[in-house]
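PROTOCOL LOG
Step 1. Enter all chains and additional molecules of the complex.
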Amino acid sequence: QVLLQESGPGVVKPSETLSLTCTVSGGSVSGHDWNWIRQPAGKGLEWIGRIHTTGSTNYNPSLKSRVTVSVDFSKNQFSLRLSSVTAADTAIYYCAKDWGGYVPTWLDSWGQGTLVTVSS
Amino acid sequence: DIVMTQSPDSLAVSLGERATINCKSSQTVLYSSNNKNYLAWYQQKAGQPPKLLIYWASTRESGVPDRFSGSGSGTDFTLTISSLQAEDVAVYYCQQYYSTPLTFGGGTRVEIK
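Step 2. Run joint prediction.
Step 3. Record the structure below.
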């Protein structure tokens, strides 16, 4: 059973870059495909992007110009960077594993989520 | 993007009764080459992350009680809770993985009547 845990600053200033890390335990980060999803308070889910085991990435076009997802094999972690943030980026951010394959599928393991607030 | 529309937004059901949640996609999520519907369902309880219930529109994830079932094909799908239990109070989401970006329905809140 893969366990995921998000970490990172809870507050980010407008126009700065949001950086989050997801630590994977109970499995290798190199053996699966990884996603980031966010959820504004009281609202629905928005898929941000995914990194495949090959290192290829897929991003939501609505965020693509500002998003980078990467993997750190030595730390068994993967990361999210979202640049030029505004208040609209305030949300709970989740990391999640998908079933696998060349394209994203269903998300079968989720972290507990971390709240990021964009505020000066 | 494929738009996922759920109905109703919320419903209240008596304990032991059936709850039915609908999900409609703006285009088909049935992949003709393998005849599979690229649709999943999740349950999100208050303060928790979503939990996978069903994938391929009707395949229950391991450990999910059999009172949860998924049906439908093409653009119209249903999640049914056959006998609502107190622990089923949650928001339920459908999600398509036919194409990127992955997209979710707006959610349906299930409460006890």
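Step 4. Note key features.
DSSP finds no helices and 13 strands in chain B.
Chain B touches chain A through 23 residues (CB under 8 Å).
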